[in-house]
Design goal:
243 residues, five-stranded mixed beta sheet, binds FE2/S2 (inorganic) cluster, 8% helix
C-alpha cells in the first residue's frame, strides 16, 4: 500500500482542496484556505495547563506559505528567510503510522486502551493535569476521572495520545474541521508548533504523503529532530514568534 492511501483510524474524510506541501528547503505551502488561529494555553483553577483560548486570526489565501525555519520576520508567513537561516530542513520522521511505531505504547484500563507515542510530544502539558492521563485511564470506573481522561486526550494537539473504546471497539477522536492553529504557551514563555486539524494531508517534497491524521503538529521553530513534526524542542529553545 502506498503511504498516500493510509489514514489513521478516526480521521475524517475531507474536501480534496485541502493539502499542505512541504518544500525541501523551505516553507509549508497550504492549499484550500483553512482557517488559521493563534490558540493560547490557559490554566485550570490549580494553575495547570487545561485548555486553549483563541487569541488571533490570520488571513489565508487559496495558497499560503507558512514559515517552517522559524526565522521569518513576517510570521506566521514565509518571507524567504529559510535561504539564509541557520537550520536543518531535513525531514527525518518515519513514514510508519504513529501507533505502529516501535516507540508506541499502550496503557489499558476498564474502558479504554490509551495509545501513546512519546516521540510526538509537544509539551503542552494538559495531559499532566489532575494527576495525569496515565493514572486516569486505570480508574475510568470513576466518572470524574473518566471525564478528565477524555478531556486531556482530546486536547493533545499532536495525537501522541489516542483512546480506543473497548465497548465501541473504535478510536475516539474529537470532531475537528480542516483548520490550522499556532500554539502559544505563556507559562513556558514560548511559542509552539503549527497544529493541523481535521485530517489535512501533508505531502513530502518527493510526493509521498504522510499517514493522514486528525491531529498533527508540525515544527515551526526549525529546531525539531523529528521533522516535519514538532518534538518539543521549541520549549528548550525558548522560541518565540512574537505575534
Ligand atoms: S515548533 Fe516544536 S520543535 Fe519546532
Amino acid at each position: 500500500m502506498k503511504n498516500d492511501e493510509k489514514t489513521e483510524p478516526g480521521t475524517p474524510t475531507i474536501d480534496a482542496k485541502y493539502k499542505i506541501e512541504i518544500l525541501a528547503k523551505g516553507p509549508y505551502i497550504v492549499h484550500g484556505k483553512p482557517t488559521l488561529e493563534q490558540k493560547r494555553i490557559i490554566n485550570n483553577e490549580d494553575g495547570e495547563p487545561w485548555d486553549y483560548i483563541k487569541d488571533k486570526s490570520f488571513e489565508m489565501q487559496e495558497v499560503t506559505s507558512l514559515c517552517r525555519c522559524g526565522e521569518s520576520k513576517n510570521k506566521p508567513y514565509c518571507d524567504g528567510a529559510h535561504t539564509h537561516a541557520n537550520w536543518n530542513p531535513e525531514l527525518t520522521a518515519p513514514m510508519t503510522p504513529l501507533l505502529e511505531d516501535e516507540d508506541a505504547q499502550v496503557y489499558s484500563g476498564p474502558d479504554y486502551d490509551m495509545f501513546d507515542n512519546p516521540d510526538y510530544c509537544v509539551h503542552v502539558g494538559i495531559c499532566m493535569a489532575k494527576n495525569a492521563a496515565w493514572r486516569a485511564v486505570r480508574h475510568t470506573d470513576d466518572p470524574e476521572r473518566k471525564a478528565v481522561l477524555e478531556h486531556e486526550v482530546e486536547r493533545c494537539p499532536s495525537g501522541r495520545l489516542k483512546l480506543f473504546s473497548k465497548e465501541e471497539k473504535k478510536f475516539i477522536e474529537p470532531d475537528l474541521k480542516p483548520s490550522l492553529a499556532i500554539i502559544e504557551d505563556t507559562k513556558k514563555k514560548c511559542s509552539g508548533p503549527l497544529w493541523v486539524m481535521g485530517g489535512i494531508p501533508i505531502v513530502r517534497p518527493d510526493g509521498e504523503t504522510y499517514v493522514r491524521r486528525n491531529r498533527v503538529t508540525l515544527c515551526r521553530c526549525g529546531q525539531s529532530h523529528n521533522k516535519p513534526y514538532c518534538d518539543g524542542s521549541h520549549v528548550a529553545e525558548q522560541w518565540k514568534d512574537n505575534l
